[in-house]
Design a protein that fits this description.
382 residues; alpha+beta; four-stranded antiparallel beta sheet; 6 helices; 16 strands; 23% strand
């Protein structure tokens, strides 16, 4: 019977040694990802740096204690207490967390949180049994029970303290620690592109259109099944105008091809490669957004103030003959220092509402411009 007890205790100690060595080495080999996972934890976000190091060091110290006979019993106590801490942590995740993050990696990767909880409880029970069997002839039972109660309660209280304190730091002290949900977007389909020079030119309910900075006259269409359609090779007279950076945008059944360093905008139908010039010598611009088939929001550098300015380009019939209308709104981008860097940002548009948004790059501010009809413009600052 005594030999069986000794063998049982050794098996449990080997189990903890293997578990903690594997867990610590796995964390060390992918330490950056481990820190990110702790940072995403709904319970320990505020102490991700400290906890990530403390867990690895504790696991390795316990392994060392279990290896040497003089510290073997202390190693069993510590193993049980650490598994208790993990158990309390998982219980809090399942019952008091704002969200349930992904489970840990390694050998337990296939387990869900409930399976983790059962595994940890079983490990705690095995640790308690091993402590009793190893120390029953050396220490009074009351001393062993008291030691187990104190060590396990202290480990549980530590996790509770970190949980409550971290929650307070995140929600009350607001130290700019941010929690990010794990995998908020899941990839369901993908398609391989030949190079990294593609950009989004537009989309509709069925297709996505991609422009290419290396081959700017090519427009790639990808359908909802992620099947590539043949490239549309846009006809453009490159000798007539000194283009430097051609880009394409798709709106409805039309595509618009332009280069803001050259005051020329051409338009064509998606079913045809032929284009027509719809704007000539109306405005130079650094950004453009299509509002509808004949109205475009632009960002330009004012020739008078030398500041970035938002404007509206309206395409009239026979626009190439100089009948287009350009409206500038110099009051929208307020100058703070140089009028260029301090006003930098990005234009975006919503085809359904005909609203254009300008999001400042270096200010906590954005501007919404709404075009209700052909004559009125609504501007809202945020």
């Amino acid at each position: 019977m005594k030999n069986f007890q000794n063998i049982f205790v050794k098996i449990i100690s080997y189990f903890f040694i293997l578990l903690f060595i594997y867990a610590s080495v796995n964390k060390i080999m992918d330490f950056e990802n481990f820190q990110v996972q702790i940072g995403q934890s709904p319970l320990l976000s505020a102490y991700a740096g400290f906890v990530s190091y403390a867990v690895i060091i504790t696991e390795l110290l316990i392994v060392l204690m279990l290896i040497f006979p003089k510290t073997f019993l202390l190693g069993l106590y510590s193993s049980t207490a650490l598994m208790t801490a993990f158990t309390v942590y998982i219980y809090l995740i399942l019952n008091y967390s704002d969200f349930v993050p992904c489970s840990c990696g390694g050998i337990l990767e296939k387990m869900g949180w409930t399976e983790h909880l059962i595994f940890n409880i079983t490990s705690v029970v095995l640790g308690i049994v091993a402590v009793f069997l190893y120390s029953k002839n050396e220490y009074p039972r009351k001393t062993v029970i008291l030691s187990l109660v104190i060590s396990n309660i202290l480990s549980a209280v530590l996790i509770l303290f970190l949980f409550l304190r971290s929650d307070y730091v995140i929600k009350q002290e607001n130290n700019f620690t941010r929690r990010f949900l794990m995998h908020p977007v899941l990839k369901t389909k993908s398609i391989a592109l030949e190079n990294n020079t593609y950009y989004f030119a537009g989309s509709d309910n069925q297709k996505v259109y991609l422009g290419n900075r290396i081959m700017p006259q090519n427009l790639l269409t990808v359908d909802s099944l992620f099947q590539k359609r043949p490239n549309l090779k846009i006809h453009l007279d490159l000798k007539k105008y000194p283009y430097k950076k051609i880009e394409v945008k798709v709106y409805g059944n039309n595509y618009f091809i332009y280069d803001g360093t050259v005051p020329v905008i051409s338009r064509g139908q998606l079913s045809r490669p032929e284009t027509e010039v719809i704007s000539y010598k109306d405005a130079f611009f650094s950004q453009i957004e299509i509002i509808n088939s004949n109205r475009m929001a632009i960002r330009a550098l004012s020739s008078t103030t030398k500041n970035l300015t938002l404007g509206l380009l309206t395409i009239e019939k026979n626009g190439k003959n100089g009948k287009n209308k350009v409206q500038l709104f110099p009051q929208l981008l307020e100058k703070q220092s140089d009028g260029v860097f301090d006003s930098d940002g990005n234009l975006s548009s919503d085809p359904k509402s005909s609203k254009v948004t300008y999001i400042h790059a270096y200010r906590n501010q954005f501007i919404v411009m709404g075009f209700n009809n052909e004559t009125s413009t609504e501007v809202i600052n945020y």
